[in-house]
Specification:
Elements lengths: L20 H15 L6 H11 L6 H12 L8 H22 L3 E2 L2 E2 L1 H4 L2 H17 L6 H28 L7 H26 L4 H28 L2 H4 L5 H4 L5 H9 L2 H10 L7 H15 L1 H19 L7 H16 L3
Antiparallel strand pairs: 1-2
Helix pairs in contact: 1-3, 2-6, 3-4, 3-8, 4-6, 4-8, 7-8, 8-9, 9-15, 12-13, 12-15, 15-16
Amino acid sequence: MRYIGFNLFRFLHYFCAMQTTQDYQKAFITYLETFSRDREPENLYTPINYILKLGGKRLRPVLTLMSAEIFDVDYKKALDAALSIEVFHNFSLVHDDIMDAAPLRRGKQTVHEKWDVNTGILSGDAMLILAYQLFENYDAETFVALAKLFSKTALEVCEGQQYDVDFETRDDVTILEYLKMIEYKTAVLVGAAMKMGAIVAKASEEDQNSIYEFGRLLGIAFQLQDDYLDAFGDPETFGKQVGGDIIENKKTYLYIKAIEFLNTSKSKQLQQLFGVSLEDNEEKINTVKQFFVESGSADATKEEIENYTNKAFSVLDSLSISNEKKALLKQFGHILMTRKV
């Protein structure tokens, strides 16, 4: 299963005026180290510490810390909420890797490969509980707000995962269904990360909802951009194999739109390509990309990326923050829309 790549982490410093990205990341990692202490039983907690220390960009917790400061509260007050988001995200990765029988995560053995499947399931379950426990460090009102948002988001992520699994065996996935899948599986967690910072800052309910919408809409734009770059990105900068979705026969926005736009004959050819595995992946990738371009699917995808980015920008008008902060958030959106990695 796929998650938003979040290679844009290094771009956050462009719009984060309160602290640098490195400041947020350093503070979070230091806090994470206090959480990842040795506990008993060792066979339950060691795998948890292992997955949490594998690295990653730590984008979600950074967004939580940044959001708190957008609403004029010291980011340190949001560290427990940020840690909760990161623990939950890694819990989902542990279980995802089991479902995918994935051998590697961030270049290292996955938990179920390093230990076993039962350990992966149980340690993952424990991580979900630990994520909830972190909210207990806040006052009652903040606890309730964070827990409600977390429960809603966690369930949506599971629903998105199930949609993604279902789509693997369906040939009739619609654009609306695909957009719903990437919203639930990836974008809602971006929105939740930002809203948690606003909740800790005790921002107004209107501002909490607006910053959530900003993150959610940009999360959708990012995933669509990730789909596009997977096919048309520069191998030198993309950070992973270009054409990976095509090789795996993933029914992305590009594919669904191409099926919609192509005539019956070419549509059947594309469907046949996505129904087989070929030894010559390069030929398959090039042929499919040609279908994407000729059909207008590639251009339609770029238009939808811009559409969702502009929707996010429109949300900024309702935020009761300074124009300077709005401009920085908008700059972030522009970087997101034009990224090459």
